[in-house]
Amino acid sequence: MKKLILLSLSIVILTNCYAQRRTKKSAAKEEVTPVEVVTPQESQPEEPAGDPVITEECLINLSLFNESAKNKQYADALGTWNQVFENCPNANRAIYTHGRSILHWLLSEQTDDVKYQEVFNKLMLMYDKRMKYFGDDPRYPIPWIKGLKALDYIVFVKNDELKKPAYKWLEEAIDGLGEATEIEMIRQFVVLSDKLYANDQTHGEKYIADYLKANDLLETIIKNAESTDQTLATQATQYKNGLDIVFAESGAADCETLDELYKDEIITNGEDLGYLNKIISFYRRVRCVDSKVYFDAAVKAHKIQPTAESASALAAMSYNQEEFQQSVNYYEDATRLSDVDIDKADYQYKISQIYYSKIGDYPRTKTHALNALGYNPSLGSAHMIIGLAYAAAKGIYDDPVLSKSVFWVAVDRLNKAKQVDPSLTEDVDKLIATYIRHFPSKEDIFFKPELNNGKSFYVGGWIGETTICR
Question: Is 88 within 8 Å of 58 (Cβ atoms)?
Answer without folding.
Answer: yes
